[in-house]
TrEMBL record:
Organism from which the protein derives: Clavelina lepadiformis
Enzyme class label: ligase
SUPFAM superfamilies: Class II aaRS ABD-related, Class II aaRS and biotin synthetases
Upper taxonomic lineage: Eukaryota, Metazoa, Chordata, Tunicata, Ascidiacea
EC number, UniProt record: 6.1.1.15
Catalysed reaction equations from the record: tRNA(Pro) + L-proline + ATP = L-prolyl-tRNA(Pro) + AMP + diphosphate
UniProt entry keywords in alphabetical sequence: Aminoacyl-tRNA synthetase, ATP-binding, Ligase, Nucleotide-binding, Protein biosynthesis
Keyword Nucleotide-binding recorded: yes
Descriptive protein name: proline--tRNA ligase
Domain Aminoacyl-transfer RNA synthetases class-II family profile, first and last residues per copy: 49-325
PROSITE patterns for the chain: AA_TRNA_LIGASE_II
Length: 441
């Protein structure tokens, strides 16, 4: 079945009075991503700090999840799903029921206390404490990950998906035999994160950071530069080292202050080398070659999936139009047919569907093409909406299709929009070349 704009973007057409009131109150933000996601109907407000994800945005989220899954295979990551509810007794073992404070959302079921997990160290350790009893040192390392919804009692949610109470996160937990092996795993995961952001075509800053309530012996954060970012990072232009400045000043950094620059950023990922902090408390042990019981060396790693998408949009979009990393665009190509009743429509009744099938049957565009079927609207109106949504490519079937040599109007959403007129037989090869160039830029 062909993808149609009228079915995929219904909330961008107005919505109910209640929806508009919710959107208006949520849109009072300095965040471009928040305002534009609301305006295009890609998210719909539920309540303060919580949003419904509409079909096009969910496509983008699933694309990012698939990209992460692909890279997890490179480090032998295995996917699992942990329960969102964490029992109080196990959080008490690590002391984090108290230390998380009001950010921990709690509930009570049949007299027992639980939290909606903002992170899953306790949960994964409860699994591994049983799992590793059946295994020995020869089975390590083990690397387990999930992509799931997390919860945080954010006191003042703002900026849409950048600071909210419910969000999608990918978290990875690793188990090694000793400190050296754990450090090797840590570097492998950091390299994997670098590769993910390189595939997205987004520049990130890797900054040394404190371990906070997660704990451990070392951590790094991944940041995307943004004027609405809440984190301040000290970046050395000479060594390309960076530090989170939440617990230090520029003068305290171990480099020549002449080369240091303070940058506002959005945190999109965090890596922790945990040591045996959790494994000792929660009985995550293995049997070594001498038949001794030894606590595992652990690491935990997180990518803010929904936040990465918002941060990319924040960095790439204008005030008036979304711009996506090619790999995350909900659809790569939007086809705009002629207006109903126009001469162009009467002369080219089958061309739009033929063009859709041609692109859909090309590997690079399979399931990534959408038709703006709102043909009661002018081509110009729909082209403006396509620009707002930020499709990497918009193809207009308009007046030039009636020329002696029929051509399509192809609009490429790069740093500046560019329009080219391409013959129908050449359009696939043209787009392959243009999009591959853009994705490797």
């Amino acid at each position: 079945m062909r993808q149609l704009v009228s079915k995929c973007f219904p909330l961008s057409l107005g919505g109910t009075h209640l929806q508009q009131n919710l959107i208006s109150s949520a849109r009072a933000s300095e965040s471009k991503s928040s305002n534009l996601l609301l305006q295009t109907g890609l998210i719909s407000p539920s309540c303060a700090g919580m949003f419904h994800f509409l079909p096009p945005l969910l496509r983008s989220i699933k694309k990012l999840e698939a990209l992460i899954d692909k890279h997890m295979l490179d480090i032998d990551g295995q996917k699992l799903q942990l329960s969102s509810l964490g029992p109080k007794w196990i959080w008490d073992k690590t002391g984090r029921w108290a230390t998380f404070g009001d950010e921990l959302l709690t509930t009570q079921v049949s007299g027992s206390h639980y939290c909606l997990s903002p992170t899953h160290e306790e949960a994964i350790c409860s699994v591994m404490s049983q799992y590793l009893k059946q295994l020995s040192h020869v089975h390590l390392p083990i690397r387990l990950y999930q992509t799931t919804t997390k919860y945080r009692g954010e006191a003042k949610p703002h900026s849409g998906l950048l600071r909210c109470r419910e969000f999608i996160m990918n978290d990875l937990y690793t188990f090694d035999v000793d400190e050296q092996s754990a450090a090797t795993t840590y570097q492998s995961v950091c390299n994997m994160y670098d590769n993910i952001f390189r595939d997205l075509g987004v520049a990130v800053i890797k900054a040394s950071a404190g371990t906070g309530v997660i704990g451990g012996v070392m951590s790094h954060e991944y940041h995307i530069k943004s004027d609405v970012g809440e984190d301040k990072v000290g970046f050395c232009e000479k060594s390309h080292q960076a530090w989170n400045l939440s617990n230090m000043t520029l003068d305290e950094l171990p480099v020549d202050p002449e080369y240091i620059k303070e940058i506002k950023c959005i945190e999109v990922g965090h890596t922790f080398l945990l040591g045996s902090h959790y494994s000792k408390k929660l009985d995550v042990h293995y049997i070594n070659k001498n038949q001794d019981t030894v606590a595992c060396e652990m690491g935990c790693y997180g990518l803010g999936v929904s936040r990465i998408i918002a941060a990319c949009l924040e960095a790439m979009s204008s005030e008036n139009a979304l711009r996506w990393p090619l790999a995350l665009a909900p659809y790569k190509v939007c086809i705009i047919p002629p207006k109903s009743g126009s001469r162009e429509e009467s002369m080219n009744t089958d061309l739009v569907n033929e063009l859709y099938d041609l692109l859909h049957n090309t590997t690079e565009f399979t399931d990534d093409v959408i038709i703006d079927d709102r043909t009661n609207r002018t081509i110009g109106w729909r082209a403006k909406h396509a620009n707002l949504v930020g499709y990497p490519v918009t193809i207009v079937v308009g007046k030039t299709i009636m020329d002696t040599e029929p051509k399509l109007e192809v609009i490429l959403q790069k740093e500046k929009d560019s329009t080219n007129y391409i013959s129908v037989p050449d359009v696939v090869d043209y787009l392959k070349k243009q999009l591959c160039f853009r994705s490797n830029k």
